[in-house]
Amino acid sequence: MRDEYDFSKARKNPYSTRLKKSITIRLDEDSVGYFKAISEEIGIPYQTLINLYLRDCATSNRKLNLNWK
């Protein structure tokens, strides 16, 4: 290893806006089972499938219709 490195010509990571953040989320077993079943059918990991679904909801500005009684 060098003692010093020259970063004067470095550039920002172009993919930094697409980086994922690790979080903890509590989901009920039925919801996780639903996404796991679909993920096995289409051959992608269930966490990726959940992320795709949530991203689709966010980009289309979809909101839940909750009516509290």
- The count of helical stretches stands at 2
State the shape: elongated
Main sheet, how many strands, which sense, barrel?
Answer: none
Class by SSE composition: mainly alpha
Distance between the termini: 66 Å
User: If you average the pLDDT, what whole number results?
Assistant: 91
**Which ranges are low-confidence, i.e. pLDDT below 50, for 5 or more consecutive residues?**
none
Which sequence of SSEs, written as H and E, runs from N to C?
Answer: HH
Strand content: under 5%
Return Rg in Å.
Answer: 20 Å
Number of strands: 0
Helical content class: 40-55%
Summarize the structure.
The chain has helices at 29-42, 46-59. With 69 residues, it is mainly α.
Describe this structure in words.
It is a single chain. The protein is mostly helical and 69 residues long. The chain has a domain at 30-60. The protein contains 2 helices and no strands. α1 (29-42) crosses α2. The N and C termini lie far apart (66 Å).
